[in-house]
Design a protein that fits this description.
- This protein is of the alpha+beta class.
- It contains five helices and 14 strands.
């Protein structure tokens, strides 16, 4: 998804109240809002494949799987982000209505316009979440999935999965072929 910066300072409470009345979704960081606009068909298909596969895996296990329109609150002061896919198995998120606060897994499908932000500042922000165990980045131009997983020493380690391999997400005890995540997807380099 493309992120366009809106120039206006808001408090977290002002943002939450204001955003409810907007036709678009907005992320919030450091007092500023960023419009979330459009995505590509491959981006959407990948997110849908992930969400539906995870939903099937986690059915009746007490976890919430959300896609695109659910924001994550990092603290009462923000930031607030909209991940492509988010999973929370925490009891405290069971009755959440406006945002999740205790995810164990966050997945972002990379877009050329937002990849740097999702690898950099957004990941730094997400690492503030004490319950987060894995942060996954999914490429839209090649069949590569990168999973950043926190180890027992509190260090984030990278685990990469390529075409013809199986993705392993330890936070939710999940395995699936990379091909399943890219089912029905025409990658951007295939359009050339």
């Amino acid at each position: 998804m493309v992120v366009a910066k809106e120039h206006c300072y808001m408090s977290p409470d002002e943002y939450l109240e204001w955003e409810e009345k907007q036709p678009l979704k907005y992320e919030y960081m450091d007092g500023e809002v960023y419009a979330m606009t459009g995505g590509t068909i491959p981006h959407n298909t990948i997110a849908l494949n992930l969400a539906s596969t995870l939903k099937n895996h986690l059915r009746n296990k007490g976890c919430k799987i959300q896609i695109n329109d659910v924001k994550v609150q990092l603290s009462e002061k923000g930031p607030y982000h909209y991940p492509d896919v988010v999973v929370s198995c925490d009891e405290r998120d069971k009755k959440a209505i406006k945002f999740l606060q205790y995810p164990c897994l966050i997945i972002e499908v990379l877009s050329p316009s937002t990849e740097g932000f999702e690898r950099g500042k957004k990941f730094r922000n997400y690492r503030q979440i004490e319950t987060l165990k894995e942060y996954v980045l999914v490429s839209t131009d090649q069949k590569i999935i990168e999973c950043f997983r926190i180890n027992d020493q509190g260090v984030w380690e990278l685990h990469s999965f390529n075409e013809n391999e199986e993705v392993r997400l330890e936070s939710i005890d999940f395995n699936c072929p990379v091909e399943l995540i890219y089912e029905d997807v025409i990658l951007s380099d295939e359009n050339i």
